[in-house]
Amino acid sequence: MGAWGSSLYANDTTSDVRDTYIGFLEEQLSNQEAYDKILTMYSEYLGDPDEEPLFWFALADTQWKVGRLTPEAKTKALKWISNNGGMALWEESKSGGAGWKKTLDKLRVKLETEQPKEKKIRKPEKINQNLWNIGDVYAYQFHTEESTKYGVCDKYMILQKIDEEKYLSGKLIMRVHVFDKLFDDIPILESIRKVRLLPLDFPTSTRNLRMNIWLGLEKEKEYPIEYLTYLGNMPIPENVVRKPSFSSDACWFNIEGWSRYFQLWNGVDYETVEEGTFRYTHQE
Fold first, then answer.
1. Which of 7, 11, 33, 96 could form a disulfide with 29 if both were Cys (CB 3.0 to 4.6 A apart)?
2. What is the DSSP letter of 87?
3. pLDDT of the residue at 98
4. Segment 136-190, tens digit of pLDDT
5. DSSP letter (8 states) at residue 275
6. pTM, entire model
């Protein structure tokens, strides 16, 4: 769990819950079906004092926006608001989480206001989400203002497809990991074989680190083909965990945001908890 701002969706957990729930509705599940399914998918978060409030905040807010707020989600969210849920994100903040408290106040007012009429959610266009073969390695060149902010614009990030699995639509989607090294020029495979993996997570995480992620498209035009170079296919490292302890996904259109992880993990260590499972090495 990590945050890059104090708005409701400026952290991985709330944005994941929002996108997952909307995805279920796009697949034309009923609200009850979507609700039951998301509770099952994120059952690991329920009972976790840090993650559970974020789960209910995102679910209640998203349900309210589409006119499907359930009594339980509303009750749970309001209860966590009254308990200042999510403040673990701001334990070391100089502001004491003032911005987050304002966010919770706005959410409370919203949830206590009559929700809009139920909005029709259209089924999205069918898109091929499984573009590579398992083991394929690609170099992606950062090129936007966002990557410039983190000092990596024009550098190459190396991704490898390590698995594929059924997504919400029942179609296959790729799971990828990233190597923790940036290149000024397109590298050869041999130069990355012994490079450690980059956690797609924050060094403050108290859970097992997210070392890989689903990667999909919302629109075909989002696939950045002009910034991708195929390097070849190589065996997946034996210690790779292909499915993390919690499910999360990302889209090609926000991959430039991954540039921040190179900065966050520069000089920071993580340890192997067991084969394929890693955790941040807390430093005094």
1. 33
2. G
3. 83
4. 999 999 999 989 988 999 999 999 999 888 765 567 888 999 999 999 999 999 9
5. T
6. 0.57
Angle 13-16-19 from CA coordinates, rounded to 5°: 150
The helix/strand/coil state of 220 is helix
Confidence check: pLDDT of 1 > 70? no
CA–CA gap between residue 157 and residue 139 (Å, rounded): 6
Segment among 1-5, 220-224, 243-247, 262-266 with least mean pLDDT: 243-247
Q: Which residue has the tokens 């009972």?
A: 47
Q: Beta strand 156-166 with 136-141: parallel, antiparallel or unpaired?
A: antiparallel
Is beta strand 228-233 parallel, antiparallel or unpaired with respect to 213-216? unpaired
- What is the rounded average pLDDT of the residues 17-46? 92
DSSP 144: S
Could you tell me the residue ranges of all domains in the chain?
Answer: 12-111, 136-280
Q: 104, 69, 68, 110: which is closest to 86 by C-alpha?
A: 104
CA dihedral of 7, 11, 13, 19, whole degrees rounded to 10: 70
Dihedral over alpha carbons 204, 206, 207, 210 (to 10 degrees): 10
Nearest-angstrom CA–CA distance, 193 and 28: 43
Give CA–CA dist 246/266, Å, rounded. Answer: 24
Helix, strand, coil % in the chain, rounded to nearest 5? 35, 20, 45
Determine contact, residues 195/180, Cβ cutoff 8 Å. Answer: yes
